[in-house]
Design a protein that fits this description.
Blueprint: H1 2-17, H2 19-24, H3 27-39, H4 41-46, H5 52-71, H6 74-81, H7 84-89, H8 95-124, H9 133-157, H10 161-177, H11 190-198, H12 200-213, H13 220-243
Helix pairs in contact: 1-8, 3-5, 3-8, 5-8, 5-9, 5-10, 5-12, 6-9, 8-9, 8-13, 9-12, 9-13, 12-13
């Protein structure tokens, strides 16, 4: 447990020491909130769907967590190139503990990033159900763990940053745009509904929206079950792939 804690703490310290990283990573979510929330808000309201910012904010919180969590895997490649990963792997600590520490550290950073975006949405007009905030926080943590584990699993198979960035860019946009984060999921074509049901982020977005805005598609119990099971599965896969890393 001590090894897990030390590796987790390293991730947290690196995050809070990089003020530019914190500030820079809220730029895109803020742009989406302002441009889409206020730009499409009147159209959304005229269509009888209510307040668009209320609908959009959980999706943007999920987006912030998704981006930060997936790209946390690049630190493995960075540590590999600069020799730090080799020093960790030769230490008398199991690779399982190393992977869990890194994943929890990356997930905590991604959660903090989502929490910052959540706080930004409040002065913009987002009105969450504060009674359900603890449930929303649970969904934020599950999204962070799942996608951090996914980023770690992918990074374990790669050795260069360019390849990792290309794969992330290929994955992130379909995962985000086909999650229902920006548009209502009712009335979609059957093909898109199938894609949506296979996208883990869709359950995270739906869970956050159900918790914060009382808008639900799959059902909050289904969201919790699917996302929790997917997170455990990715942790197992990530641990296996990380254990096979060759330096």
């Amino acid at each position: 447990m001590k090894a897990i804690y030390i590796i987790w703490l390293r991730q947290i310290k690196r995050y809070f020491r990089s003020k530019s990283r914190i500030i820079g990573s809220i730029g895109q979510p803020l742009l989406f909130l302002v441009a889409l929330g206020f730009g499409f808000g009147p159209t959304f309201s005229k269509a009888g769907e209510g307040n668009y910012l209320q609908f959009l904010s959980p999706g943007i919180i999920s987006m912030s967590i998704l981006f930060t969590a997936l790209f946390s895997g690049i630190e493995i490649i960075w540590d590999r190139q600069f020799g730090f990963l080799k020093e960790i792997l030769v230490a008398p600590v199991s690779r399982m503990e190393i992977m869990i520490g890194r994943t929890l550290g990356g997930a905590t950073v991604a959660f903090f990033q989502g929490l910052i975006v959540f706080l930004i949405t409040l002065p913009l007009g987002f009105k969450p159900s504060f009674v359900m905030v603890p449930v929303g926080i649970l969904f934020m943590l599950l999204i962070a763990v799942f996608f951090t584990a996914l980023g770690t699993a992918i990074a374990s198979l790669l050795k260069d940053m360019q390849g990792f960035q290309l794969i992330m860019n290929f994955l992130i946009m379909p995962i985000f745009f086909l999650s229902g984060a920006l548009f209502p999921t009712d009335g979609l074509p059957n093909a898109l509904k199938v894609v949506l049901s296979l996208n883990p982020l869709a359950y995270g977005v739906d869970g956050l929206r159900a918790s914060f805005a009382s808008i639900v598609y799959f059902g909050i119990g289904t969201d919790l079950l699917v996302l929790g099971a997917a997170a455990l599965l990715l942790l197992a896969i990530g641990s296996y792939l990380f254990s096979k890393i060759q330096i």
